[in-house]
Design a protein that fits this description.
It is a single chain. The chain is mainly alpha-helical. It has one domain: Arc Repressor Mutant, subunit A (Orthogonal Bundle), CATH 1.10.10. Helix content is 68%, strand content 11%. It contains five helices and two strands, in the order ααααββα. The chain has a two-stranded antiparallel sheet with strand order 1-2. The longest helix has 39 residues.
C-alpha cells in the first residue's frame, strides 16, 4: 500500500497558528487578516504571512475586500488533505497490524520453546 503525500500541504497544516486560522475560517466564515488577528496571539502582519503560506498550497483563496483581502477555505483542497490523512492513517494501521502479528508469532515461538 502506497500513498502520495503533498509535503508542502502538510508543512503548511503542521503549524498550529495556521491550523487555528483554518479552524476560524471554517467556523466563522471568510475573514481578513485583521479579523483573524483579533482571535490569535500574533500580529496582523504575522497572520498575513501565514495566509500567504495557506494560499500558496491552495488551502485558502482570497477575494479583494476594500484595502484588504477576504480569505475563505478552499473546500476541495481541504478534502484532498483529509483524503491524504485518511490514506496515511490506513497505511499505518496496516503496518501496526503487521507488527502486532510478528510480535505475536515471536511470543508464540518463545512459549513453545519453554
Amino acid at each position: 500500500m502506497s500513498t502520495v503525500v503533498d509535503d508542502h500541504l502538510w508543512s503548511a497544516i503542521g503549524d498550529p497558528t495556521r491550523r487555528r486560522m483554518l479552524d476560524l475560517l471554517l467556523a466563522e466564515g471568510p475573514g481578513t487578516a485583521t479579523t483573524l488577528s483579533a482571535h490569535l496571539p500574533v500580529t496582523r502582519q504575522a497572520v498575513t504571512k501565514h495566509l500567504v503560506v495557506l494560499d500558496r498550497v491552495g488551502l485558502v483563496r482570497s477575494t479583494p475586500a476594500g484595502r484588504e483581502k477576504r480569505y475563505h477555505v478552499d473546500e476541495a483542497q481541504l478534502a484532498r488533505a483529509v483524503a491524504q490523512l485518511n490514506s496515511v492513517g490506513a497505511l499505518w494501521n496496516a503496518r501496526l497490524r503487521r507488527i502486532k502479528s510478528l510480535a505475536e508469532a515471536i511470543q508464540q515461538a518463545r512459549n513453545k520453546s519453554r
